[in-house]
Amino acid sequence: MAIYQDRITSDKRSPHMNNQQISAIFDDIAERLKSKKENVFKIRAYQKVARSIESLPVSVEQLVRENRLNEIPGAGEAIAKKLTELVTTGRLEYYEKLKAESPQALPQE
What we know:
It is a single chain. The chain has about 110 residues and is an all-alpha fold. It has a single domain, classed as DNA polymerase, domain 1, CATH 1.10.150. The protein has helices spanning about 1-10, 20-35, 40-55, 60-65, 75-90, 95-100. The longest helix is centred in the first third of the chain and has 17 residues, at about 20-35. Mean pLDDT is about 85; it is low at about 1-15.
């Protein structure tokens, strides 16, 4: 989990986030959902989007601006909304709630 924390840390004054930071957040969401024993398909969706974001040739920020989030493999409507919120505000309410439910760092398998 320490890797996630290093990758997630960002400048709190600016909502700008790079693909690596966004990917780390979606990886962490998947890990937290796994620890809650959520639906495996939901977990895999977050994992798939995290991997897809890591390999994108352009920034997620650009895809949000150009309304092209549907080009990210695995990004359905719900995840696209989360990506838009994260890119435009620098935070994700869903992620904040998950962290509040289990604030301690989660072990990575």
